[in-house]
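Case study: Methyltransferase family protein.
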Amino acid sequence: MSEQPPTPTGDNPYLQRAYGLAGPEDARALYDEWARRYDADLADASQDYVAPRLAADTVVRVAGTDGTVLDAGCGTGLVGAELARRGVAVIDGVDVSPGMLEQARATGAYRSLEPADLTRPLDTPTDAYDVVVCVGTLTHGHVGPEVLPEFVRITRPGGHVVATVLGDAWDTGGYRAAVDDLVSAGRAELVSADATPYRAGAGVEARMLVLTAR
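Here is what the predicted structure looks like once written out:
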């Protein structure tokens, strides 16, 4: 019997593959293949991917609309489009998949879009952004907690990191421990990490992590 995915995926073959990715090359191949139908698949009532909208609401609530934002793991631009609708004007995006970046570019929401592997240290300068937002990337088979210190590094002191962490990965994937380490080291303040709907149609929740960089 094949191993079951850690969260409900329904009969979507792309979602089923997504939670078993072996690394960045595997992720690039999957998301390049999925890019053109990704938005429609996750907008389906069986999934109802509300996380981009809720994350954009969180960004505006904690940081307003005037700052510079990096959408890390921007995918097709769902988060960037939601931020732009709320009046955020300066949004950059990075993603491992050129196919996803092509879709994000079509939204018109981004100042710049660049390829990046979030499992490696980022080329982004220290203190570069007022907000780093990351939705749908900190999860099984994707990007681990080692990226959180990088997010804090590239966020200006007093700025914010807003990120979803899928379901039980918050504990089992080491994200809670990574946040505790950042707080203990005086690099960040934990504002909140509340449970929130993620793929509401499938009953999937995530933590909405909010950090203030120090």
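For the exam, be able to explain this: The first helix runs from residue 13 to 18.
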